[in-house]
């Protein structure tokens, strides 16, 4: 059963949209306007954010530029290294500093037990808004496997030949899973199906 979502931080959907944009995911103009409007109504204030929240349908082409300005005004757009891999890790660290409370699943008692792919679980974490990610070694299909899911929405498994790649992808997937559950909590107009398929497309089997 899904857990109840944690109390919403009014600036969190803005942060998540900024991260999604930086990671190369498309956030539509109407989504940006809705996120800005919700933030303004929740008491978040910056000149560009207020402008963005007030855009009409014919003004949607202005949304992306105003969103970038609002991120600068609110300090949501850190300077990133030029190297794409380094930038991805910087974004991961930035996301973790926003108090994303991943914790050991079942108090860590699952580590060392048999996983869903028949291997031994080496890492197993849960997100308080209803997601889980597990890394296991020595499964039936490949030397390493990552199984993740959002409760009530999706389960997805990936396979790897070596430990360093598997562990790097495990860490890269955590902020993306957080983005999914955060957008679900924020009632993202794109809908659960889009969020799940977009995640799977980014992290193929």
Q: In words, what does this structure look like?
A:
- The chain is of the alpha+beta class and 205 residues long.
- 44% of the residues lie in helices and 15% in strands.
- It has 7 helices and 5 strands.
- A 5-stranded antiparallel beta sheet has the order 1-2-3-4-5, with helices on one face.
- Residues 1-8 have low confidence and may be disordered.
Low-confidence stretches: 1-8
Largest sheet: 5 strands, antiparallel
Mean pLDDT: 83
The general outline is elongated
Radius of gyration equals 18 Å
Helix content: 40-55%
Q: Total domains, how many?
A: 2
Strand count? 5
Count of alpha/pi helices: 7
Put the structure in a nutshell.
Helices cover 44% and strands 15% of the residues.
Task: Describe this protein with a few key phrases.
single chain, 205 residues, alpha+beta, 5-stranded antiparallel beta sheet, 7 helices, 5 strands, 44% helix, elongated, disordered N terminus
Write the layout of secondary structure elements.
Layout: H1 12-22, H2 29-41, H3 47-53, H4 63-74, H5 84-96, E1 103-104, E2 120-127, E3 131-137, E4 144-150, E5 154-160, H6 163-185, H7 192-202
Antiparallel strand pairs: 1-2, 2-3, 3-4, 4-5
Helix pairs in contact: 1-6, 2-3, 3-4, 5-6, 6-7
